């Protein structure tokens, strides 16, 4: 007599378990994961979880570009002249990055010098901006005591 394989009996699924199994259309077992969140609950808004951007002062100086971006300006012009049929900025950017990596330091010095000059201008402008901002802040929030600071004699002195 040949023994026939019998399916093992599965115990009833545990109601506290997060995983349950179900049969698929082809008869195989598939594992389904229950969500811990009820279906009626809404997803949290992504905008609420992000930090709110700080208000930017329009008069604040902007950071200057790096040396690579000054190189990119020059390279883009040359690349467009040599390859007028390529309009994709992705391809231009890739070609520029490859060229920048292959350049020697001596070739990059010109762009580093430009970036250094612009950075120095930015630092001076930032210092001036901070001075103006501090003086404006001081004039707006000066607390007046009502007393004349230049004269120590009081009208009540005899």
In sequence order, what are the helices and strands, one letter per element? EEHHHH
Main sheet summary: 2 strands, antiparallel
- DSSP summary: helix tally: 4
Radius of gyration, in Å, reads 36 Å
How does CATH name the architecture of one domain? Orthogonal Bundle
**Relative strand content:** 5-15%
Q: Oligomer, anyone?
A: single chain
Tertiary shape: flat
Instruction: Summarize model confidence as the mean pLDDT.
Output: 77
Helix and strand composition category: mainly alpha
Helix content: 40-55%
Strand tally is 2
CATH fold name of one domain: DNA Binding (I), subunit A
CATH class of one domain: Mainly Alpha
Q: What topology, given as strand order, has the largest sheet?
A: 1-2
Distance between the termini: 131 Å
Uncertain runs with pLDDT below 50, 5 residues or more?
Answer: 143-148
């Amino acid at each position: 007599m040949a023994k026939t394989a019998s399916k093992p009996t599965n115990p009833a699924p545990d109601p506290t378990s997060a995983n349950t199994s179900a049969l698929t259309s082809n008869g195989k077992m598939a594992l389904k994961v229950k969500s811990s969140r009820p279906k009626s609950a809404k997803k949290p808004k992504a905008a609420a979880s992000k930090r709110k951007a700080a208000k930017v002062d329009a008069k604040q100086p902007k950071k200057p570009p790096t040396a690579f971006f000054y190189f990119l300006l020059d390279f883009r012009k040359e690349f467009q002249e040599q390859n007028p049929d390529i309009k994709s900025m992705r391809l231009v950017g890739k070609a520029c990055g490859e060229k920048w990596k292959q350049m020697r330091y001596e070739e990059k010095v010109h762009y580093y010098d430009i970036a250094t000059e612009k950075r120095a201008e930015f630092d001076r402008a930032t210092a001036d901006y901070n001075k103006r901002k501090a003086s404006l802040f001081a004039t707006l929030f000066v607390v007046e005591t009502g007393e004349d600071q230049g004269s120590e004699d009081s009208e009540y002195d005899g």
